[in-house]
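During the no-cost extension, the postdoctoral fellow (Dr. R.K.) reprocessed legacy sequence entries with the updated structure-token encoder. One reprocessed record is reproduced below for audit purposes.
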Amino acid sequence: MKKTVLCLCLSLFFFSCRKTNTDPAYLPDSYSDQALGASAHDLLSAAKYTTLNIQVQYMPGYQLDPAVIANVTDYLNTLCNKPGGINITQTQIAANGDTLTPEKAGILEKQNRTAYTGGSTISLYVLVTDGYDTALTILGFAYRNTSICIFGKNIAAHSGGLFEPTLVSLESSVLEHELGHILGLVNTGTPMVADHQDNAHGNHCNNSQCLMYYSIDTHSSSILHPGIIPVLDSNCRNDLHANGGK
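Re-encoded structure tokens follow.
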């Protein structure tokens, strides 16, 4: 991760992400204060929760495009057994403009999040910010069992230009990648059926064509083509299926 964002966008697309859970004291809901991957089985199976709700809160100017919502909904519908449906709602929150760490994202989540897990519904939270991570290569991170932060300003700044992915492709890819971590990939809450972990890059897949690879080669990937994003490979899909997914 020593290359600059500009170089990554021109030659190599990185799904740079942190995966650390914040101080458990931040949220009022104990279920949502667990480690990353702890809710993987609950999200994948219908044994306990039959409906999935995703609360997206975005800062001014960074509302998710309807095509991103559609892509993410389709992605989760292919993976999760949720006969009650998958619902995504968006609301705007106040601008922040600050450099965010998982700890700071957790504070903003506590201040703004209103949807939590209960009854037959499991809830996820997505924060779309107008700032940057402390490392400019970071486009998003999953930091709790139900919490994700993506950097809308950074994503917008590195999409839509010459040799860059479209905004919809990049935003969909980052969000789906982080949701993959929430679902326990790779080897974080969802055990591996076969060994495919990229040990040099943490909880990522060792297949360079997989959505869960730590980087995507834009010269050989479909990510630069409008409306097309990387997909999970068979190893990742097998892991999710074995942990209660479709």
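The longest strand covers residues 121-129. Confidence is low (pLDDT under 50) at residues 1-15, 217-223. The remaining legacy entries will be reprocessed before the final report is submitted.
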